[in-house]
Amino acid sequence: MTAYSHPSPIHQHRRALVRTRAALAAGKLSVGFLGGSITAPHVFRNWPEPLLSWLVERYPRARIAVENAAIGATGSDLAAFRAGPTVIAAGCDLVFVEFAVNDLGQPTDLRNRMREGVLRQLLAAGCDVVLAYTFSDAMQADMAAGRVPPSIAEYEALAAHYGIGSVWMSLHAWHEVHAGRMTWHEWLPDGLHPENRGSLSYAQSVIAFCEREFAATAVAAAPARSALPAPLHAGCWETVSVVPWADIRTEGPWTLRRWYTCYGLDQALYTTAPGAALRFTFTGRGLVLGFDFGRFASEVRYRVDGGAWQVTNRDRPAWAGDRGWLRPVIVSDTLAPGRHEFELETLAAPFPGNCGTVTTLGLVGVIG
């Protein structure tokens, strides 16, 4: 086997995109995206742009609406809480999901529960779903050996279970590099993020997938929604909710503000005071907090049901700015189902540049 003759297919066609084709026939299609920075809405740079341009050219009489809810440096943990108010609320007919890279830092069992929850939410809403797989250095050894990287293989198991199509975009780009049609630098200038030529390569693989899906001339009516099969992973994040701000009791100088500096947050509880505290009760088996994180962010300590305090110790990579990173803290997703009490306090920790006293909490998500 040569270095570019990976045996896996780029495209997996498992179920017709019936809702998408019916929407196009009716002259109105809504397309959604969930993913990280590789998919985020950067006009002229990321792969959704040439895909959308192709759709507009291919269907000039259709109104193409777009709900790109992808956010850099986020994974399926936040997507489980954002799918509902973004792509589902927008009535998206077709949703592309791209988290094969951004979920890599999570334990296997946890990322499977998160991912399956996102997919079940989309499928229950009647969306056509397509999985899109990108590349990171952690996948290179497996791909060079003709293997499927674990993060992608796990997604493929879910795709087979639910009949979801998939596009291994980075395998298409891999073939182009090893065939001499594109340099590695043209594909991934910084080793992870494609720009221009690399994004076009990703989009071309998705366009080829869509061309086959749309090739049939007859358009069937959208089928009635049927019950989903049983989950593959117990405890998947299918049922989620948020704690209303009015139900959170604060101690110290907190303010509730409309929040503009972190994409994905609408409102946030904000304080700069070490020792500021909050508490609330929730009913479920898990809790996820979403912070506007960066160099200025404080660490916090928290506990559930009066147990031992847990202290966050989040890395601050060089690429992170002063703020603007929507970053989750997964308190737990394995609590006993039922009512729980949560407490949090801000900490003053010595970070370089005298930073580390700002706490901005923008999401309090409950896993049911």
Keywords:
Jelly Rolls; Rossmann fold; 17 strands; six-stranded antiparallel beta sheet; six-stranded mixed beta sheet; single chain; 368 residues; alpha+beta
Give a written overview of the molecule.
This protein is α+β, with helices and mostly antiparallel strands. It folds into 2 domains: 11-213, SGNH hydrolase (Rossmann fold, 3-Layer(aba) Sandwich), CATH 3.40.50.1110; 240-367, Galactose-binding domain-like (Jelly Rolls, Sandwich). Helix content is 26%, strand content 25%. The strands form 3 sheets. Strands 1-6-5-4-2-3 form a 6-stranded mixed beta sheet, sandwiched between helices. The longest helix is centred in the first third of the chain and has 17 residues, at 108-124. The N and C termini lie far apart (47 Å).
Q: Indicate the low-confidence ranges by residue numbers.
A: none
> Mind telling me the CATH class of the largest domain?
Alpha Beta
Taken from the alpha-carbon principal axes, the silhouette is globular
Rg for CA atoms: 21 Å
Q: How much β-strand is present in the residues? A: 25-35%
- Please write the string of helix (H) and strand (E) elements: EHEHEHHEHEHHEHHHEEEEEEEEEEE
The level of helicity is: 25-40%
**Biggest β-sheet, characterized?**
6 strands, mixed
Question: SSE layout and pairings?
Answer:
Blueprint (H helix, E strand, L loop, with lengths): L10 E2 L5 H8 L2 E8 L12 H11 L4 E6 L7 H7 L1 H5 L5 E5 L9 H17 L3 E5 L7 H5 L5 H13 L2 E3 L1 H10 L5 H4 L9 H17 L26 E3 L6 E3 L3 E4 L8 E5 L5 E8 L1 E8 L6 E5 L5 E2 L13 E8 L5 E9 L12 E9 L1
Parallel strand pairs: 2-3, 2-4, 4-5, 5-6
Antiparallel strand pairs: 1-6, 7-17, 8-11, 9-10, 10-17, 11-16, 12-15, 12-17, 13-14, 13-16
Helix pairs in contact: 2-10, 3-5, 5-7, 8-10
